[in-house]
Automatic annotation (TrEMBL):
One of its GO terms (biological process) is response to cadmium ion. This is ArsR family transcriptional regulator. SUPFAM superfamilies: Winged helix' DNA-binding domain. InterPro entries: ArsR-like_HTH, HTH_ArsR_DNA-bd_dom, HTH_Metal-responsive_Reg, WH-like_DNA-bd_sf, WH_DNA-bd_sf. Residues 5-99 form the HTH arsR-type domain. Pfam families: HTH_5. One of its GO terms (molecular function) is DNA binding.
Length: 113
């Protein structure tokens, strides 16, 4: 018999999907998968302004995907749970294996991808 996931699981997965829907947030998560980082270093690595990075970090923090760890007068960011890093690796590998050579024409018009 087919079972349906609890609503709380659905909400958590949807929140994760919304976070991944933005390429900059994907890049941040993948960078933090490699190692924790301070915002200034992340901004430089990703080639974006600190203001833009700050907005995306706030979103990821609000989603519960990253945490800020005070280090002296600075804050270092890291994944909220290291399993997220493994999940990102698995998800990326699966999607690339299945969809690596596909494009989604009219993605915006269809509201997909």
């Amino acid at each position: 018999m087919l079972t349906v996931a609890p609503d709380t699981d659905i909400e958590v997965l949807a929140r994760f999907g919304r976070a991944l829907a933005d390429p900059i947030r994907c890049r941040i998560l993948l960078a933090l998968r490699e190692a924790p980082a301070h915002p200034a270093d992340l901004a430089e690595t990703l080639g974006i302004s600190r203001t833009r990075l700050s907005n995306h970090l706030a979103c990821l923090r609000d989603c519960g995907l990253v945490v800020g760890v005070p280090v002296g007068r600075r804050t270092r960011y890291e994944l909220a749970d290291q399993r997220l890093g493994r999940a990102l690796d698995d998800l990326r590998a699966a999607v690339v294996a299945v969809e690596g050579d596909r494009t989604c024409p009219d993605a915006e018009a269809k509201g997909c991808c």
